[in-house]
Amino acid sequence: MATSSRSPVGSHVTYSQVDNPSNSMMNERRNTTSSVTTSSKANKKWMRLATVFAYVISVSLVAVVLAVYYTFFWKYDNTGPTTPPPRCP
């Protein structure tokens, strides 16, 4: 009575699926939701573009505020020290 037993890992499972099961799940999800993935990529692209524009505008706004401050409000004090520094021998 010889019984043949198969291993739990069949021939349909590849090494990459055993090594990283999330790859096979991601591939299955990609195949079933391709239209959702396309719109998701477009949303990610617009979101990245919006964050870049927000960063550039915020940095530029700070630069303009500093330029206005130093141009109109900051007073440079050029009185210097009251006594000259000591000379080295």
Automatic annotation (TrEMBL):
Record bears the keyword Lipid metabolism: no
Stretches the record annotates as Disordered: 1-39
Polar residues: bias regions: 1-26
Keyword DNA damage appears in the UniProt entry: no
Highest rank taxon of the organism: Eukaryota
Keywords: Membrane, Transmembrane, Transmembrane helix
Pfam families: InaF-motif (PF15018)
Segments traversing the membrane: 49-72
Cited InterPro entries: InaF-motif
Entries under PANTHER family matching the protein: INAF MOTIF CONTAINING 2, ZGC:153157
Protein name per the record: Transmembrane protein INAFM2
Source species of the chain: Holothuria leucospilota (Black long sea cucumber)
